[in-house]
């Protein structure tokens, strides 16, 4: 072989073995209107820029319940009766169709706004849709989690997988052509671990799996959100609370408009008014919402497992017992507190874990690096300005997923999921 030919062979070999690049959406070609990540996270997409979706009245849907953990009848107080059975929502097409499971984000209920949007998007495209609560929601922890200590990703995936199998068993006449899976935020991380689990159990053989704005390093993501609560906000002191400042702004806004109109466009219009929230106020509001989710996790896990850290073991909670004092105490426990007081001891006792660094690696996408690299069915959509990402997180996704990663220039944390461009891209991914 001549030298030029050998060089050409070498060049083609290098190109063939080089990793393909992720799809980075050029800001010049992306017309999502909110470039502030805090604003995008809170406001989401203006209604005029969302896709046309079916109305609730046009969706054949119902809520169902399954008893997965019979022992909770005795472990939970009587006034927890609504969450002793796992509830979920199923939207059915009239005939045979693909089915997609949607896993909600941190602390979210299956019927919260983002699962509802995704349900309408997929139902309108011809899918059966099952909406599941997050493993970190109090209802899933109570009714479906074996150990009620969420955060150990493989155990959370096992709980979700059992729940999915139970859902399918409850609807034996539902005609399904193939199975798909998606999740947003923490639900995206959960979906990755569920997908890996399915490779060995083969109960669903998911055709396509899409992670929407998932945490890469779970510890980094929750630390970033926890820090937002500590943001210094002008006008807040010992005598004026953060909520009084926000309520004052909303009151003045509605007084200026002359009427009260609470709808999807409210926050977008509000942020265009002179009462708009500052970056610091928006950051604290996002952090406060996450802190409430963390408090729910800490309280519910402590109650079910009777650890005595928040709820006293020797004082049974009855129907008339006020939960407010316990919840106030839980609010003092951020995710780091839950991690050290409840999650780490369980992980060390059950799995022989040692250090925090080991736990972080085991529950994050790092633990699935080989699977993410080799699984062509799995893709990720993320935003470059997502506040849950840390240094090196996008680099990890680029190296691991290549062209199966799409990065949008802005959109904050899940703020652009219902933008019509993103909606079209989501459906296109599942069409293959």
Walk me through the topology.
Elements: H1 3-17, E1 23-24, H2 37-43, E2 61-66, H3 72-75, E3 86-91, E4 97-103, H4 113-124, E5 128-132, H5 138-143, H6 153-170, E6 176-184, H7 186-201, E7 208-212, H8 218-228, H9 242-257, H10 266-272, H11 279-305, H12 324-331, H13 335-351, H14 356-363, H15 369-374, E8 378-383, H16 393-401, E9 405-408, H17 420-431
Parallel strand pairs: 1-9, 4-5, 4-6, 6-7, 7-8, 8-9
Antiparallel strand pairs: 2-3, 3-5
Helix pairs in contact: 2-11, 6-7, 8-11, 11-12
GO molecular function: protein serine/threonine kinase activity
Keywords: Kinase, Serine/threonine-protein kinase, Signal, Transferase
Protein name: Serine/threonine protein kinase
CATH class call of the largest domain:
Alpha Beta
- CATH fold annotation of the largest domain: Rossmann fold
Number of strands: 9
State the order of secondary-structure elements, H for helix, E for strand.
HEHEHEEHEHHEHEHHHHHHHHEHEH
- Secondary-structure arrangement, i.e. CATH architecture of the largest domain: 3-Layer(aba) Sandwich
Tally the helices: 17
Level of helix content?
40-55%
**How would you state the average pLDDT, rounded?**
86
